[in-house]
Automatic annotation (TrEMBL):
Transmembrane stretches, start-end: 6-24, 36-54, 60-81, 88-110, 116-138, 150-167, 173-194
Gene3D superfamilies according to UniProt: 1.20.1280.290
Keywords: Cell membrane, Membrane, Repeat, Sugar transport, Transmembrane, Transmembrane helix, Transport
This protein's GO CC annotations: plasma membrane
Subcellular location: Cell membrane
Protein family according to the UniProt entry: Belongs to the SWEET sugar transporter family.
Bilayer disposition of the protein: Multi-pass membrane protein
InterPro entries: SWEET, SWEET_rpt
Molecular function terms from GO: sugar transmembrane transporter activity
Protein name, entry field: Sugar transporter SWEET
Length: 225
C-alpha cells in the first residue's frame, strides 16, 4: 500500500510541478509576469528541497525521490521566470549558492527529527505564497490570478501524501499535508466565487475589507516586474 500511495503521490507531485509550464509559456510571449507568483515558485522549490533532505537524512527513499525530482523541476521554472525578467544568471547564482550552503549545514549539523520539523515549518511558510495571488483575485473578483490547474493538483497531492503519512504514522508528513488540503480548498472556493459559480456575497465582505490595503487591485497589468 505504501508503494501504491507513493506512486500516486509521485505522479501528482510531478503534475503539481509541471503545472506552471503553461503560465510561464504565456508569460514568455507576453512578457507579463503579473499572473505568476514568484513567491510560490520559490517557496514550493525550497519546500521540496527540505523534504528531499529529510527523506535523504532519514533514509525514507519513497519520500526523497519524488521530492528531489520536484525540486529539480522547480529550478527549471525559476530559471525560466528570471529569463523572462532578464536577470536569470545573477539571481540563480545567488539562489543556488544559498541553497547549497544551507543544505550542507542541515545535513551535517541537524538530526533527522529536527530536519523533519524544519521541513514542516517550511511547508507552513509556503502556505502564505497563495496570498500573493488570492488578494488581487478577491479585490478584482478575477479568477485569472488563481491557477486552478496547480491548485487542483496540489489538493489531490495533499490528500495522497496525507494518507501516506497516516499509513506510516509520520506526523511530519500528516500535519503539513492536512493544512495543504485546507489552504487549497479555500483557494478553489475563491476561484469558484470569482467565476460566478458561488453566490456574490460569499466573499464580498472580505473583498471590501482588503481593497484599501491592496496594491494590485484595479491596476493595469505591470510588464516585467
Amino acid at each position: 500500500m505504501e508503494i501504491i500511495l507513493t506512486g500516486i503521490g509521485t505522479a501528482l507531485t510531478i503534475a503539481v510541478n509541471l503545472a506552471p509550464f503553461s503560465s510561464l509559456h504565456s508569460a514568455s510571449k507576453s512578457h507579463n509576469l503579473e499572473e505568476i507568483s514568484h513567491l510560490y515558485l520559490l517557496l514550493a522549490n525550497i519546500t521540496q528541497l527540505a523534504w528531499a533532505l529529510y527523506g535523504f537524512k532519514g533514509k525514507i527513499w519513497l519520500a526523497f525521490i519524488p521530492s528531489m525530482f520536484a525540486f529539480c523541476i522547480g529550478i527549471i521554472w525559476i530559471v525560466w521566470y528570471h529569463m523572462i525578467n532578464k536577470n536569470a544568471f545573477v539571481f540563480m547564482l545567488k539562489y543556488t549558492s544559498a541553497l547549497f550552503g544551507f543544505s550542507l549545514l542541515l545535513l551535517n549539523f541537524i538530526n533527522v527529527e529536527t530536519l523533519g520539523l524544519f521541513a514542516d515549518i517550511i511547508s507552513f511558510i509556503g502556505m502564505i505564497a497563495p496570498l500573493e495571488q488570492v488578494i488581487p483575485a478577491l479585490v478584482e473578483k478575477n479568477h485569472r490570478y488563481i491557477d486552478i490547474k496547480i491548485i487542483v493538483a496540489c489538493v489531490l497531492n495533499g490528500f495522497v501524501w496525507l494518507a501516506y503519512g497516516i499509513l506510516i504514522n509520520n506526523n511530519f508528513i500528516i500535519v503539513p499535508n492536512m493544512f495543504t488540503v485546507l489552504v487549497c480548498s479555500f483557494q478553489i472556493t475563491i476561484y469558484g466565487w470569482a467565476k460566478g459559480v458561488l453566490p456574490e456575497g460569499t466573499f464580498a465582505l472580505l473583498s471590501d475589507y482588503i481593497k484599501p490595503y491592496s496594491q494590485k487591485g484595479n491596476k493595469e497589468p505591470i510588464l516585467i516586474i
